[in-house]
Amino acid sequence: MFTRKDIVVLGMMIFALFLGAGNIIFPPMEGFTAGTHWSTASLGFVLTGVLMPFITLVVVAMVGRGEELTRDLPKWAEVFFLATLYLVIGSLFAMPRVTNVAYEMAWLPLNIVEDTPYTHFIFSFIFNIVGMLFMLRPNTIISTVGKFMTPALLVLLIVVTVNVIISPLSDIVEPSKAYATNSAMTSGLISGYQTMDVLAAIAFGGIVARALAVRNVSSVQNVVKYTISAGLISVFLLAVLYFALFYLGATSAQVAEGATNGGQIFSRYVNALFGAGGTWIMSGIIILANLTTLVGVTSACADYFARFHIRLSYSFWVILFTALTITVAQTGLTELLRITIPALLLIYPVAIMLVFLQIIRNKLPNITFSYYVTLLVTVSFSACDSLKNIDLLPQTIENILNYLPLYAEGMGWLIPAFIALGLSLFLGKKSA
């Protein structure tokens, strides 16, 4: 029997798995640049950073594992997409980012040692080795997350939120950068990509399904029921957290000068509010939160790649990904954030459309045709968004794409993808 207490613990576990680097570092900077438009921007951020991951989590838990989303694709396309996804949310981008957030937000503010490449490497090495030891016995940390670490984390976040609301450091500033020229809602939607939580939900959905299976919950109806119940706890907590961090950023002018990422703004703000004692508490919680995400994501990545060859076991991939994360993490947080965005602009829309196609799969007259047409158009346009971000898109193509709605905001793929899906439904009926 899956009790109400079990649902709460599962919800806390889901919240802790999602609460990693992007969830903390992006909202403060987005809130600062959104300024007086922070509430509208935060709503957009919640739609792509909370609602979409929640839908993805439920869909993946329902089908059992993330790989089921790609079962209607050719084998080469399935492997390419999933391998790219796991590398993006894993050791090439997200997990080095998690490591650097822990370093810049939790370790450096303690002022124990100077910030040098040597110090950075030692911290990255120890942090990831500790994570690796948990990964080799993943149930050890995951089983304790919902009961112990998350409640402690929530206490700190509640204290920070209440103090930010009661005693904001600065007046809210005017919008800047993209928020000064584009729609705050659309800019918030795009910034929500950067949490990578839709991609992570593809991995975490399988973890939730296995956690339910251990408690003998296996029917699709019960899996959906309990995943929605537990997931809504995570949705509520994450949404409240994001609104609070956006407001923190919007009122951070006093400490935001010279900051290159939201992690620095958050650390400076908490230090200004609570002094050295608050910094120590925050450091411990952030390290634990990022460690949980590191273990959850890297375990899922290792589990996927271990299926390719019987001699390359789960343990082999855990060790390999740990070494790769340590290496890539030496790039530094600000640089990692800069190079992550083009990759996300390419893969995120594909993940969103795969989830949507799975939801309406039984309604498609020709499943294979709809998948091929829709995803081909999605990839083509999202590739243009990605190339534009790094200034590699030919000017002639960009001049044409400028006529597309939402293209300037980085969502040029959206309308063409749904037009392609609509055409595939019509043509699929013709060929059925």
Automatic annotation (TrEMBL):
<feature type="transmembrane region" description="Helical">
    <location>
        <begin position="76"/>
        <end position="98"/>
    </location>
</feature>
<feature type="transmembrane region" description="Helical">
    <location>
        <begin position="369"/>
        <end position="390"/>
    </location>
</feature>
<comment type="function">
    <text>Component of the transport system for branched-chain amino acids.</text>
</comment>
<keyword id="KW-0813">Transport</keyword>
<feature type="transmembrane region" description="Helical">
    <location>
        <begin position="148"/>
        <end position="170"/>
    </location>
</feature>
<dbReference type="GO" id="GO:0015188">
    <property type="term" value="F:L-isoleucine transmembrane transporter activity"/>
</dbReference>
<feature type="transmembrane region" description="Helical">
    <location>
        <begin position="226"/>
        <end position="248"/>
    </location>
</feature>
<feature type="transmembrane region" description="Helical">
    <location>
        <begin position="339"/>
        <end position="357"/>
    </location>
</feature>
<feature type="transmembrane region" description="Helical">
    <location>
        <begin position="7"/>
        <end position="26"/>
    </location>
</feature>
<dbReference type="GO" id="GO:0005886">
    <property type="term" value="C:plasma membrane"/>
</dbReference>
<protein>
    <recommendedName>
        <fullName>Branched-chain amino acid transport system carrier protein</fullName>
    </recommendedName>
</protein>
<keyword id="KW-0472">Membrane</keyword>
<feature type="transmembrane region" description="Helical">
    <location>
        <begin position="280"/>
        <end position="302"/>
    </location>
</feature>
<feature type="transmembrane region" description="Helical">
    <location>
        <begin position="410"/>
        <end position="428"/>
    </location>
</feature>
<keyword id="KW-1003">Cell membrane</keyword>
<dbReference type="Pfam" id="PF05525">
    <property type="entry name" value="Branch_AA_trans"/>
</dbReference>
<keyword id="KW-0812">Transmembrane</keyword>
<feature type="transmembrane region" description="Helical">
    <location>
        <begin position="118"/>
        <end position="136"/>
    </location>
</feature>
<dbReference type="InterPro" id="IPR004685">
    <property type="entry name" value="Brnchd-chn_aa_trnsp_Livcs"/>
</dbReference>
<keyword id="KW-1133">Transmembrane helix</keyword>
<dbReference type="GO" id="GO:0015820">
    <property type="term" value="P:L-leucine transport"/>
</dbReference>
<feature type="transmembrane region" description="Helical">
    <location>
        <begin position="38"/>
        <end position="64"/>
    </location>
</feature>
<dbReference type="GO" id="GO:0015190">
    <property type="term" value="F:L-leucine transmembrane transporter activity"/>
</dbReference>
<dbReference type="GO" id="GO:0005304">
    <property type="term" value="F:L-valine transmembrane transporter activity"/>
</dbReference>
<keyword id="KW-0029">Amino-acid transport</keyword>
<comment type="similarity">
    <text>Belongs to the branched chain amino acid transporter family.</text>
</comment>
<feature type="transmembrane region" description="Helical">
    <location>
        <begin position="314"/>
        <end position="333"/>
    </location>
</feature>
<dbReference type="GO" id="GO:0015818">
    <property type="term" value="P:isoleucine transport"/>
</dbReference>
<feature type="transmembrane region" description="Helical">
    <location>
        <begin position="190"/>
        <end position="214"/>
    </location>
</feature>
